[in-house]
UniProtKB/TrEMBL annotation:
<dbReference type="InterPro" id="IPR012858">
    <property type="entry name" value="DC_STAMP-like"/>
</dbReference>
<dbReference type="InterPro" id="IPR051856">
    <property type="entry name" value="CSR-E3_Ligase_Protein"/>
</dbReference>
<keyword id="KW-0812">Transmembrane</keyword>
<dbReference type="GO" id="GO:0016020">
    <property type="term" value="C:membrane"/>
</dbReference>
<feature type="region of interest" description="Disordered">
    <location>
        <begin position="420"/>
        <end position="440"/>
    </location>
</feature>
<feature type="transmembrane region" description="Helical">
    <location>
        <begin position="60"/>
        <end position="81"/>
    </location>
</feature>
<feature type="transmembrane region" description="Helical">
    <location>
        <begin position="219"/>
        <end position="236"/>
    </location>
</feature>
<protein>
    <submittedName>
        <fullName>Dendrocyte expressed seven transmembrane protein</fullName>
    </submittedName>
</protein>
<keyword id="KW-0472">Membrane</keyword>
<dbReference type="Pfam" id="PF07782">
    <property type="entry name" value="DC_STAMP"/>
</dbReference>
<feature type="transmembrane region" description="Helical">
    <location>
        <begin position="30"/>
        <end position="54"/>
    </location>
</feature>
<feature type="domain" description="Dendritic cell-specific transmembrane protein-like">
    <location>
        <begin position="245"/>
        <end position="410"/>
    </location>
</feature>
<keyword id="KW-1133">Transmembrane helix</keyword>
<feature type="transmembrane region" description="Helical">
    <location>
        <begin position="303"/>
        <end position="324"/>
    </location>
</feature>
<feature type="transmembrane region" description="Helical">
    <location>
        <begin position="360"/>
        <end position="381"/>
    </location>
</feature>
């Protein structure tokens, strides 16, 4: 409890410095506010510099110039404008809430698709090319081996019959000449056509995947940033214009308003009834409540569903790799003992030169996904508290709207109580009248 009080006092002091106007603070507070604004803008500019250098592949001087200009502009805007500071704080909080969760889930799905699904397609394509290669290598054997066996069989039959042509008086001499000819031109044309079709399909698929990968790597960070900004603006708009939006929290402003109502002789609402305490959340509250636990489960459910989908795609990739690897490992060119007058023949499925070479990119996708899942897990645990912190920040920056929301919530609770009292009185009166009728 003591550590919670110390953390709360530090947060309140930091909140006072950020939420205060730059013209109404002392020089120490002035300097502290300036350092906070410049630090935040420096972090944002550093991410922008890395994005320009390694994603968009800008030159160092150009990227440094853009990032430096962004640092100065954002730092000055944060220091001079209270609303910009509010927007910056809410933007950081949005990165750890539902909007940031959706961005990370999209990033994980894109990673699995671009790594594991692409690798699965490569292994399937390699297996198909290996099959075509084997058919081309075995084309002559498939056409000529059966015919050669038939020729050998006919010659053996001729040698056997020759032993029965000597009748003692006369001898019948016969020569058996058998020749074979195989025409594999149609098979060759079909194999060439199959190889051409396979190469064309693979080329179009890889072109689409490469385009998607390039576009997603370049545009996804910028799109995610703009998406988070849009959600932050939408939250501010709903907070300022919709009094029902997330208005279930008992804050310090609400407590002060209720005390003021009580001092003026008007009906207060505090303390809340047990049923109201389960519905309306008092903040700040150091412990985890049942409603917050439900919020954490609701926040974590999409993460769990997408995690199962990621495991499914990775499992398919691993199974495909295992299947192709088994084909490689079980290939053994065994020598068979020749049996006299055995005219059977064997054609191996795969030639050594045509064996597929599978590839597994498990570590390229598993390690980033582990980092994403760790971030999503921490976000799930902090989601309920971040919602409360976001509400407190909006309350500090928009005090007029906060007072209107408090008045609305206060009147709403009183209205529900009066309605329940009226229903209770009506039930009691009806019960009394019923008792009187039965007594009479």
């Amino acid at each position: 409890v003591r550590s919670w009080i110390l953390h709360r006092s530090f947060i309140l002091s930091l909140e006072h410095e950020i939420c205060s106007s730059s013209s109404s603070v002392r020089w120490k507070d002035f300097l502290f506010l300036l350092i906070i604004c410049l630090t935040f803008s420096l972090i944002l500019s550093s991410f922008l510099l890395l994005y320009l250098l390694y994603v968009l592949q800008y030159g160092l001087m150009v990227a440094a110039g853009i990032a430096g200009s962004c640092w100065v502009a954002v730092g000055a805007s944060l220091f001079l404008s209270k609303r910009v500071r509010c927007f910056g704080v809410l933007f950081v909080l949005s990165c750890g809430m539902r909007q940031g969760r959706n961005v990370l889930i999209t990033a994980g799905t894109s990673l699995v698709v671009l790594k594991n699904v692409q690798n699965t397609l490569e292994n399937i394509t390699g297996l198909s090319r290996s099959m075509v290669c084997n058919l081309q290598a075995k084309r002559v054997s498939i056409d000529t081996t059966p015919l050669c066996n038939y020729v050998r069989m006919l010659r053996w039959v001729g040698d056997v019959l020759r032993a029965f042509t000597d009748f003692g008086v006369a001898e019948l001499v016969s020569d058996l000449e058998v020749t074979s000819r195989g025409d594999s031109e149609k098979l060759r044309e079909r194999l060439v056509e199959a190889e051409r079709t396979l190469n064309g399909t693979a080329k179009s698929v890889w072109a689409a995947v490469d385009t998607l990968s390039s576009v997603s790597q370049r545009l996804f960070p910028a799109f995610s940033f703009l998406l988070l900004m849009g959600f932050t603006v939408l939250h501010l708009r709903r907070y300022c214009h919709d009094k029902k939006y997330e208005n279930v929290y008992i804050t310090r402003t609400f407590i002060h308003f209720d005390e003021k109502q009580k001092a003026e002789g008007r009906p207060p609402v505090l303390p809340l009834t047990p049923k109201e305490a389960r519905r309306y959340i008092t903040i700040p509250y150091p412990r985890l409540r049942a409603t917050e636990g439900k919020a954490i489960l609701k926040f974590s459910f999409p993460v769990f569903i997408h995690c199962l989908a990621w495991v499914l795609f990775i499992g398919v990739d691993v199974l495909m790799f295992w299947f192709v690897e088994v084909i490689r490992t079980i290939y053994v060119n065994k020598a068979h003992n020749k049996i006299l007058r055995d005219f059977s023949y064997q054609v191996s499925i795969f030639e050594k030169s045509c064996l597929p070479k599978p590839r597994l990119v498990l570590y390229d996708s598993i390690l980033p996904l582990v980092v994403l899942l760790a971030a999503l897990l921490s976000m799930s645990l902090m989601s309920a508290k971040l919602t409360q912190i976001r509400l407190v920040v909006c309350e500090q920056f928009f005090s007029t709207n906060a007072e209107e929301r408090v008045e609305f919530l206060h009147a709403k609770i009183l209205k529900k109580r009066s309605r329940k009292k009226g229903n209770r009185k009506a039930e009691e009166s009806s019960l009394r009248s019923l008792i009187k009728k039965q007594a009479s």
